[in-house]
Amino acid sequence: MTNTKQVCIIGVGLIGGSIALSIKETFPEYEIVGIDTDLSIIHEAISMGVVDWGTIDLNQGVEKADIIFVATPVKATEYIIKQLCQAQLKPDCIVTDVGSTKENIYESARCFQEKSISFIGGHPMAGSEKSGVKASNRRLFENAYYILTPSDWTPQHAVDVLKNVLESTKAEIIVMSSKVHDEVVGAISHLPHIVASALVNFVREKKDNPYYTALAAGGFRDITRIASASVEMWRDIVISNRESMLEILTEWERHIADIKQAIDVNDIVQIEQFFDTAKNFRDDLPIRQQSLIHQAYQLNVDVPDHPGVIGNIASVLGRNGVNIRNIYITHNRERGEGAMRLTFVSRDVQQRAYEVLTTAGYGVQIED
Ligand SMILES: NC(=O)C1=CN([C@@H]2O[C@H](COP(=O)(O)OP(=O)(O)OC[C@H]3O[C@@H](n4cnc5c(N)ncnc54)[C@H](O)[C@@H]3O)[C@@H](O)[C@H]2O)C=CC1
Ligand SMILES: O=C(O)C(=O)Cc1ccc(O)cc1
């Protein structure tokens, strides 16, 4: 990796910013250029050290780039790729993207073929419900899969150059076709987003009865976290992955219809089989070590229902030099005790917090 010197990020948000930070850490000599439609985002990215400089002028930003990452919502990515086909790029420039769908982007990138510009589709399989450059993190992709879908006119050495740069993300790089990508990711990522949002909308319709909102604050909140993600991003994803999503949703309807039918006719065997099949498969899913930013060292603390308890827990930890990374109320009971989930940066801090809180008389459980 000797001749890649300038990396251009179009769309300096959560994913573009995180890739820029990973690359900068491993290759500090590289110049990182940011392009966005919003100048204040460029200024923010420069002040955070995410990019060296930036512009809102696409042509100016890409003219000296060795690698271009398009990191915008997928409909904008299609449009930008078409603009890049008309732009003046270096002859050996590699263009890649980070979009959650791949077939649509591959189609719009065909125009690179006649210009002999290498195009390699990409999709880091990690992220969050947050967006924007402020949320970017150099460790976001650690231990995650990073899927590449190279176009058939792209030479292998260009794929190797990109892989080399992406090693800075510490993700595991895998190659597949864009068609397979859209089918698989449609099922394991896009469908869950639709289901999470449908669940939230379902409960929202019942919000006139305050019990729904109150009781939805616990486990329901956890399983619907992803429904808080960017609306623009998910609108574009389901529009772009239309074919796969229609097939997947038809299959999904069959699963719902089957369990509905079993409940209707009181088919205990089928109901049991439904849960048993899911449990066995879920329990056997491989566990991938998460990146440090996703790793949570947690304690559940029983919170007696009297005033000042939450403040007291925070201050007893603070007095003992224990930093809390996150506080989350896990049960919102009407009466009696609630529970609080505390997150810490490391196993050591978690252990220290456990000692401090049990000594102070709180009921504490370690979450593994
Ligand atoms: N958020 C996530 O967890 C993941 C997202 N992705 C994909 O990454 C892409 C980016 O997502 P995020 O970083 O989350 O979004 P984001 O909203 O954090 O960042 C997108 C950035 O693109 C800029 N932008 C929008 N249109 C533009 C245009 N025409 N020209 C230049 N800049 C433009 C926005 O101003 C913003 O700064 C999407 O295609 C998404 O499907 C992939 C993996 C995970
Ligand atoms: O927040 C989460 O858990 C996500 O699912 C993030 C995510 C969003 C979109 C992707 O294409 C890949 C990962």
From TrEMBL:
Q: Where is the Prephenate/arogenate dehydrogenase domain?
A: 5-293
Query: Which pathway?
Result: Amino-acid biosynthesis; L-tyrosine biosynthesis; (4-hydroxyphenyl)pyruvate from prephenate (NAD(+) route): step 1/1
Keyword terms, alphabetized: Amino-acid biosynthesis, Aromatic amino acid biosynthesis, NAD, Oxidoreductase, Tyrosine biosynthesis
What class does this enzyme belong to in the EC scheme? oxidoreductase
Q: Which domain of life is it from?
A: Bacteria
A GO biological process of this protein is: tyrosine biosynthetic process
Q: What species is this protein from?
A: Desulfuribacillus stibiiarsenatis
Q: Which GO terms describe its molecular function?
A: NAD+ binding; prephenate dehydrogenase (NAD+) activity; prephenate dehydrogenase (NADP+) activity
Q: What is its EC number?
A: 1.3.1.12
> Which family is this protein grouped under?
Belongs to the prephenate/arogenate dehydrogenase family.
Q: What name does this protein carry?
A: Prephenate dehydrogenase
The record ties this protein, via Gene3D superfamilies, to:
3.30.70.260, 6-phosphogluconate dehydrogenase C-terminal like domain, NAD(P)-binding Rossmann-like Domain
Write one Pfam family the protein is assigned to. Answer: PDH_C
Task: Quickly give the catalysed reaction.
Answer: prephenate + NAD(+) = 3-(4-hydroxyphenyl)pyruvate + CO2 + NADH
Q: Which InterPro entries did the record assign?
A: 6-PGluconate_DH-like_C_sf (IPR008927), ACT-like_dom_sf (IPR045865), ACT_dom (IPR002912), NAD(P)-bd_dom_sf (IPR036291), PDH_C (IPR046825), PDH_N (IPR046826), Preph/Arog_dehydrog (IPR050812), Prephen_DH (IPR003099)
Report domain ACT positions: 298-368
